[in-house]
Amino acid sequence: MKQIKLLGIPFSAGQPLSGVDQAPEIFRKELSSSHEIVDLGDLDFSLCGERSTGIIKNERICGLGNALISEAIASENLTDSFLLNIGGDHGIALGTIHGLLHHHPDLVVVWVDAHGDINTPHSSTSGNFHGMPLSFLINGCQGREDFAWLRKRLAPERLIYMGPRDLDQEEKSIIEESGIQYYSSEDINKYGVEVLLKHALRAADPLGKSRIHLSFDVDVFDETDVAATGTRVKDGPRKSEILKLASLLGDTGRLQSMDLVEVNPELGSTETMKETIDLALEFTHSALSHLLVKVLQKSRDTAPLFLDSSNVQCQVQKKYYQLHYSLEPFGHLCHL
Q1: Residue 34 lies in a domain
Q2: What is the pTM of this model?
């Protein structure tokens, strides 16, 4: 039975707003009330440099901070463990995925986000690093001194986008030229996430043996559903489809790890902030539901591992999604 290890990554230097670094503590409290968690604590970025301007804003913090993240994950024993990384902005994914590639060189990454996050330092119009992590994972340090520690690469064919709809022109070109699988919110609403995910995983991992990392940015939801995040985008996928995506990934039996990023409790009203946190929690519970069912099956005649029995029932019901995939072949569905 896998244990859930929680790593807090209170990192905010990849974007300009304060508050996103507060999310790990909020989610730690919420998740600990319904899951048995091995808490790895929070990483400390205080020695990673000072905020700065330049082609990459806060470049030294972003470079050395992600080196710290990668080292922490690469050195962690993840045997029989599910790693849950709580950010923080999406810039942390450079470090989380780089660290995981030490454990699983053939890792498949499912990137659930309204944005592409694959700008290069020279193509980015904002200079914010949370829009660049994938370009560093695929292309390496790109001549940047503070990223010279990068040794692992993510193969483009092992990257799957789900839900993006706000891309810069250069990002569109990079995605097309690299042959990265890209399923927009329009694709998800039209075809349904079950069929698309089945097709995507078969293309990325034909043998069906590779571990999967889920990198989840809460802004994948429509802007009307998430107020407490910094880069909201309209025309999002249906909530039910994104929640189903999390559950279906868990049901593969290969989901190894997850990032939860870009929740900012300083944005929105108290009510809308809570709604955003609750939606992110629901997605996370769905992704973890396969672990919960195993726990319940093994512990049926023992004391419950959860404080809230109503929450347990909710989690078990997540397993009722069935993998009835269409065999209809899909081409490269890409609305760029």
Answers
A1: yes
A2: 0.88
In a domain, 328, yes or no: no
- How many domains is the chain built from? 1
Q: Residue 238 is encoded by which pair of tokens?
A: 């249906």
User: Which tens digit of pLDDT belongs to each residue from 56-72?
Assistant: 999 999 999 999 999 99
- Segment 288-297, tens digit of pLDDT: 988 864 444 4
Structure tokens at 319: 């397993």
The C-alpha atoms of residue 66 and residue 55 are separated, in whole angstroms, by 18
Which residues form the domain of 28?
A: 3-320
Cis check for the bond before 88: say yes or no (omega within 30 of 0).
Answer: yes
Confirm whether 333 is domain-assigned. no
Which two three-digit tokens encode residue 21? 């670094």
Residue range 95-112, pLDDT digits in tens: 999 999 999 999 999 999
> 200: Cβ–Cβ under 8 A, 6 or more apart, which residues?
110, 160, 162, 181, 183
Residues of the chain with pLDDT under 70: 1, 292-336
Annotate 289-334 with DSSP letters as a single string.
Answer: HHHHHHHHHHTTTS--S-S-HHHHHHHHHGGG--------------
- Within a domain: 327: no
Whichever domain contains 255, its CATH number is 3.40.800.10
**Strand order of the sheet with strand 212-217?**
37-42, 3-9, 81-87, 255-261, 212-217, 108-112, 159-162, 181-183
d(CA 57, CA 48): 14
Q: What distance in Å separates the CA atoms of residue 90 and residue 238, rounded to the nearest whole number?
A: 22
